[in-house]
Amino acid sequence: MRQRHSSVTDIEIIEDFSSTARCDEGFLRVKRLRCRNRRADGSSSSVYRVDVVDRPRLDAVAVLVYRRGAAGLEVLTRMNLRPAAYFRKDQRDAMTVPDPGTGYLRVEEIVAGLLEPEDKGEEGLKKRAAAEVHEEAGYPVRLEDIQLLGGSFFLAPGILSEKVFPAAVDVTDVSQEEPEGDGSPLEEGTQLHWRPLGEVLEACRRGDIPDAKTEVALTRLLARLG
Predict the structure, then answer these.
(1) What totals of helices (H) and strands (E) does the chain contain, helices first?
(2) Within 13 A of 113's CA, how many CA atoms are on the CB side?
(3) pTM of this structure
(4) CA–CA distance from 105 to each of 55, 100, 147 (Å)?
């Protein structure tokens, strides 16, 4: 396990400027639309509202970093600060099933990053995957070692336009360097863990690792490896 800082215990909201912010600025952009369905017989539905959340970088790649050892396959996970998940604690009355008492200051997940405009096609996906593995996990891997794990998927297609492209890479014989990270305050306290693959999959199914892309990547790697 490696970590940068371990002292982050809370995220303080300095200002909530939701009421004055525009929908088309910031890291997330909300489109508020009025739509209607057009039918084959020429008729239309009634008009209804649709909210769509986009990011300036539309899609992302998620990379399952794994290695082979005497006890079998191990996978690398990261504990990251996740404000959106953390601030659920302020809406406990709205929860159908209560969150764990500790909440979600950090969420355990696999390496991931946004795809840049130049990351075109399979080669672009592999290039971005390799770059994220080096930046977030410290492993310099080759493009040819990146395994694409099938088609992309939506996380919340009712509101999010983002698709995630799953990939994996075997770093059994690769020497780890100190991860550079991106210098963001959101990477304070990031922790890396090697854990047995089966243990991580069970943690996903219990909800201890509440990250969908991690479970999808795990199950697809298992299917590929047989």
Answers:
(1) 4, 11
(2) 22
(3) 0.91
(4) 23, 11, 31
